UniProtKB/TrEMBL annotation:
Transmembrane segments: none annotated. It comes from the Bacteria. The keyword Protein biosynthesis does not apply. SUPFAM superfamilies: Cytochrome c. GO terms for molecular function: electron transfer activity; heme binding; metal ion binding. This is C-type cytochrome. It comes from Peteryoungia ipomoeae. Residues 43-151, 193-302 form the Cytochrome c domain. The lineage of its organism: Bacteria, Pseudomonadati, Pseudomonadota, Alphaproteobacteria, Hyphomicrobiales. The keyword Repeat does not apply.
Amino acid sequence: MASTFLKAIGGLAVLGAAGFAAFVVVTAPDRQELSTWANQGDADLENGRSVFFAGGCSSCHAPAGATGDARLVLSGGAPLKSDFGSFHAPNISSDAEHGIGAWTLAEFGDAMTRGVGRDGEHLYPSFPYGSYARMTPKDINDLYGFMKTLPASDAVAPPHELGFPFNQRVLLGGWKLLFHTSEPRVELTDASDMVKRGQYLVEGPGHCGECHTPRNALGGFESDKWLAGGPNPEGEGTIPNITPGSKSMGSWSESEIVAYLETGFTPDYDSVGGSMVEVQKNMAELSASDREAIAAYLKAIPARD
């Protein structure tokens, strides 16, 4: 009987190893086709600047508390705390050794849209590639071109502080299989060009859902509660509902949303607070038409309680 038992254990071990090997193959990092990035030409730096602020790059990657031009030094920011541990935003400055100055457009694009690092590793979704996946190759090319004009820094960010099993990057392939998609977050029928532009900005570079949409136990969006608010993914407090069903913002007009994004003042003359302060600073850098598009989209999506 002992021999039979050992054989059974051995068989299970072989099956387990085979299953894990299959998992690794199926969920291996998936790069974009190189043709995706071919023939992009010279970057449109003005558009790249706009994409930079829409994407909130400095909010995470500039030094904590940075103001003015220091917000353009992307040396790595304050830790992003979560239920899974603390993530440290890396140096993404133009420094060739410590930043991403020596990366190719394809390497940068794979990180942005597929969550794949330069060395072929899975990136943690604390970097919102789940939203950036909707960005166009042109916008990514223009963004990278603009970022290469910014100051270089030789700072080195500390490693992530994650316990087991979250420190096992191989498992991120399974997370991507479950949650990573470039499909629209909401289906909008007969949407105007302005609403479509707003959808692109909110669901893509603006990555608004990363904070304003509640998540399940594995960190994936609860898709039926898009932008309905929920617990603050970084710790204390809550993030508000910004759909038309919101008790606070649901009654705001499009023009009032536009004014809030530009000035930081609500219709009742309160001012923006918390982590939204940095977001509003970025929104103020966008064109008036882009702020109007964001507002049009937020009024067009389904209302959630």
